[in-house]
Amino acid sequence: MSYPSFTKTYHHSFYPAISPSRPELSVKDKTVIVTGAGDGSIGGTVALSFARAGAKKIALIARTETSLEATKAKIAEAFPDAEVMVVTADVSRAESVGMAAHSIRAGLGAWDVFAHCAAVAPTHTTIAGADEDEWWHAFEINTRFSSHFAKHFLPKCRPGATYIGTNAGACYLPATKFPKSSAYCASKLATAKLDEFLAAENPQLRVFTVHPGVVETNMTKGFIGSRRSGVVLDDAELVGDFMVWLVSPESEFLRGRYVWCNWDVEEMIAKKAEIENNPTLLTMTLGGWPFQ
């Protein structure tokens, strides 16, 4: 499947402009929190990218401790000076998120970067054929965290903090392209709008929504299915390095926007004036209707 692109160049892997080794992208002395950070996940790879960029304090959140410990071990092996904290939590439950926020604040201090990578996709089926509880549980996990984050994590950030919500390009492509995935796609669409509200209600917070590309995980295997032969997969490091770039001042003009990690950052910088002059560009709007 080919996707539309905001830039002429559509990346599938690392390129120098988003390299965590660039001094301009350093996150030295910053505290980073990553949800969905289990081993082999997008979140785990994102955490490694921030470690490469110099983060000295990193908190990893997921439901399974053994998976988190595996991610921690990889970071510790490559970056022994980094302090990594493992916290198990269910992002759909307010009490669990509140306890995680308290533990991280007590253990690592106030945070600077929050990369939200946790999500779930239920069994692929039609709306009518879905188990109603499982179908709705996807909404609870994928959308309720915005409220939990605002109440429990937001008060514990430093000035100028950055929140990055990992979304899915599938949420605004036609339903015919992703059959039997209504709960996932609709909940991700709702989450993108909630990111917009987080930005509007908290102007001191740098908010970005990101499509992470098509990375091979257990979740994406379900979406790809029999179409794998026609799908070009993206390297997991691409989204991690792209998020590191988003934390830098170079991305300031993209605050509050929905961007794809595949889009070339230098080309986006060249379009800075166009983006800044159009408040609806790269935001969730109603296609086919000129409502501004």
Automatic annotation (TrEMBL):
Q: Which is one GO molecular function term here?
A: oxidoreductase activity
The UniProt entry, under SUPFAM superfamilies, shows: NAD(P)-binding Rossmann-fold domains
One family name in Pfam for this protein: adh_short_C2
Which family is this sequence assigned to?
A: Belongs to the short-chain dehydrogenases/reductases (SDR) family.
InterPro entries linked to this entry: NAD(P)-bd_dom_sf (IPR036291), SDR_fam (IPR002347)
The UniProt keywords, alphabetically, are:
Oxidoreductase
What protein name applies here?
NAD(P)-binding protein
Domain of life, source organism: Eukaryota
Q: Does the keyword Oxidoreductase apply?
A: yes
